[in-house]
Amino acid sequence: MNYIVLDMEWNQPWPGSPSARKPLPVHIRGEIIQIGAVRILEDRTIADEFQVLIRPKFFRRLNRRVSKLTGIKESLLMKEGIPFPEAIEQFRAWCGEDAVFLIWGFDDIGILRENLQLFGIQDQWVSRWYNAQMIFNAQTGSDSSQKALKTAMEAFGIEATRPAHDALGDAYHTAQICARMDLARGTEEYGSALKSHVEGFHGAELPGCLERKVFYDFEDKWAALSAMSGQENLCPVCGRQMLGSRWFSQPGHRYVDLATCATDGKFLIRCRLSEQPDGKVRVSRLTYEGTSDAAQSYMQRVERMEKEGGESRRRRRKKPAEKS
Q1: What are the tens digits of pLDDT across the range 16-31?
Q2: What's the predicted TM-score (pTM) here?
Q3: Rounded distance between C-alpha atoms, residue 59 and residue 10, angstroms
Q4: How far is CA 171 from CA 48, 188, 238, 268, in A?
């Protein structure tokens, strides 16, 4: 058995751009432009490496933020990148038949599956995967929150020798961390580590939290958010169904909404969505008092958006000045 430490970089279109508006047969959060991987043997020896640049097919214009973060230029992808199906064929051949994937976080496998489905490539071969963050937490006595790669490197005294936000560089540093852990035990006890992470709700809650719950097995993000604003949107005081207002997205697959109970008033709902190993969506839901700082921040944001929207509508209604 080989452990394949995987990291990827992907491109996303600018909101409102032609690429963002173009419908795709499969929803993807980003189109993969770089794959980096490092093999770890069963004795925890770091072996060979793999990397490939991929020429995007759907989001062809490279997002400036992605380019700045990764250092990848659009011209480089056009010159040295290869089509995604060809890159995957090379990657699968390099991985071999008995591969177990290790990633740092929950996103990479989901992104990979979306891209495979988009190109009509079967994805069963990536079903055996583990988030190395969970193993790190379990074996270092850390709290249940997700740790940055840099944090884990510092904990093990690992010096950065490769560039960050480069697929192979991040995979190499992740492999350095994994080589210092008991991977056999970590994968065997992964269920317990993941349960601890879920019950920890991905980090500390803000003041004013009244209720914490975890929901499982939603087909996609839309089904999850629909349930959170529908049948699962229950008042923490009386248990009656509440009415939602509007979801706002936040970094880290988080969403917030202000819900109202006819009897007990307003409550802020914060949800974090993450992918389960079977590809379905899990929701960590926090309910806050309507008078909490988190709720006040939400209402201030709504007021700002309504004000900006009103000013925009007034500008559109103004007639252009007549030419003399």
Answers
A1: 677 777 788 887 888 9
A2: 0.67
A3: 10
A4: 12, 22, 49, 38
